[in-house]
Write a structure and sequence with these properties.
Bound molecules: manganese (II) ion
Helix content: 40-55%
Number of helices: 21
Shape: globular
Strand order of the largest sheet: 1-2-3-4-5-6-7-8
Number of strands: 8
Mean pLDDT: 94
Length: about 475
């Protein structure tokens, strides 16, 4: 047999799997009892934090996301914990100053994160630099922390093999520890993956991680061809929360590579126990409607139109609101034109919403760019960063006539803001991390802080140990 080269697995059930299937609603109490078993699998990493989990914890679950992280760290002392980090947006929806980005990285690692996967919706590497540099600094100081740069995978004229190879080299020069190809829409086809991984492997020595979704039904095959071409890490989800808009099933990929040079060596009986643990929760989610069977199937339109599934459903609801569902095909044809006008960005949050909404406007108004959203204007102004291709000068002239555009890294224009943010929220602060929760989601965090305080006071009344005057919180 050829030299052993076990494929590494990043398990996503504690983050992307439930973000993709049940709107990020898995509470910490469901996670905790199974951590000990998950810790024994030997996963390369468990993705458990970041992405939408932070917002959903505070907003819907009324949980402190930092506390969740600490509990997972305690429950899985031997496994690397991974998070998803949206470059200069961190986990929020605007560009933050560098001091907020650095502080967030620092606290993420201090509370238990090992691997930070950092991406940007335009693949503008300048928007990743602050987070990557902060991670590298901590790694040099403490020996912990791994900066993985993720490239948003997309199709289009600009995205040649040369483009991906050039990006891989630049990522290596930035000092990242690994590269991820982040295929959020499940667009990467098996034979294309083979080509892509082969090309990128020739350009860099960094480990390559492939992250896809089963949305269009090809991800399992794509992983197989990618691993054969030298892909080092694949992202999978335990079967009860796999497939559909989530990742391929962990157990299936493990079995697929069994007995080959890529054999993970994982214990299928242990994996079965973990799956058995999550199965009743899956049933419960189906029963309550949290898990909609609609997201479990194959969405072939994703492949046909090369547009993420979520973007298509947004577009349908926007058209429905305007009683213009008959314009569906017109808008579908307009999307690639708008994308070209805007420099052909990958279609991922927030660029997917910007392009999709503008395409709807262009069709409904009967004149292209007669009206433009504020986000379209900001994208054209350069406020999201640089696109791979130049934007259409005629569109710029029509939408933001005479305005100055920025070409620098957008965050260069933002003054450090930690002190001000802390001053704004100090009445609620119980831990340093609260300042960061507030920085990202001021209103949602404030509501959470008030809820937390009420809970603590309520607990004090009912559970207070009167004799010792101890007040558990
Ligand atoms: Mn994903």
């Amino acid at each position: 047999m050829a030299e052993k080269k076990p494929v590494k697995i990043c398990e996503t059930i504690l983050r992307d799997a439930h973000q993709s299937l049940i709107a990020t609603r898995m509470p910490t109490e469901i996670m905790l009892p199974i951590l000990e078993k998950m810790d024994k699998v030997g996963y390369h990493s468990v993705e458990c934090w970041g992405g939408a989990t932070f917002d959903a914890s505070l907003r819907f679950l009324k949980e402190d996301p930092w506390e969740r992280l600490r509990l997972i760290r305690k429950g899985m002392p031997n496994t690397k914990l991974q998070m998803l980090f949206r470059g200069q947006n961190i986990l929020g929806y605007r560009h933050y100053a560098d001091d907020v980005v650095e502080n967030f990285v620092e606290k993420s690692i201090a509370n238990g994160i090992d691997i930070i996967r950092i991406f940007d919706c335009l693949n503008d590497l300048r928007n990743l630099k602050a987070a990557v540099d902060a991670t590298i600094k901590i790694k040099q100081r403490e020996g912990r922390g791994h900066a993985q740069i993720a490239l948003s995978y997309t199709l289009g004229d600009a995205y040649t093999l040369d483009y991906w190879m050039k990006m891989a080299k630049e990522i290596e020069e930035m000092g990242a520890d690994s590269i991820c190809i982040k295929d959020m829409a499940g667009l990467l086809l098996p034979y294309k993956a083979q080509e892509l991984i082969t090309a990128m492997k020739s350009a860099t020595n960094l480990p390559i991680d492939l992250h896809s979704h089963y949305t269009s039904g090809v991800a399992g095959m794509t992983y197989l061809k990618a691993v054969e071409a030298g892909c080092d890490i694949i992202d999978t989800a335990m079967s009860p929360f796999s497939m559909g808009t989530s990742q391929p099933a962990t157990e299936v990929m493990v079995e697929t590579f069994k007995g080959t040079e890529y054999d993970t060596g994982y214990d299928q009986e242990l994996l079965a126990e973990i799956a058995d643990y999550f199965a009743p929760y899956r049933e419960e989610c189906l029963k309550t409607g949290l898990l909609n069977p609609k997201v479990m199937g194959v969405n072939i339109k994703t492949l046909l139109y090369q547009v993420p599934g979520g973007m298509l459903s947004n577009m349908v609801s926007q058209l429905k609101e305007q009683n213009a569902e008959d314009k569906y095909n017109e808008v579908l044809n307009e999307i690639p034109r708008v994308r070209k006008d805007m420099g052909e960005p990958p279609l991922v949050t927030p660029s997917s919403q910007i392009v999709g909404t503008q395409a709807v406007f262009n069709v409904l108004m009967g004149e292209r760019y007669k009206m433009a959203t504020d986000q379209t204007k900001d994208l054209l102004r350069g406020k999201y960063g640089q696109t791979v291709k130049p934007m259409n000068p005629e569109v710029i002239e029509k939408v933001i006539p005479g305005e100055e555009r920025i070409t620098c890294r957008p965050a260069d224009l933002i003054e450090n803001e930690m002190d001000k943010i802390e001053a704004d929220m100090k009445e609620y602060k119980q831990q340093d991390e609260d300042v960061l929760s507030y920085a990202l989601f001021p209103q949602v965090a404030t509501d959470f802080f008030k809820y937390r305080q009420a809970q603590q006071e309520k607990i004090d009344v009912t559970k207070a140990d009167k004799k010792n005057e101890a007040y558990p919180v």
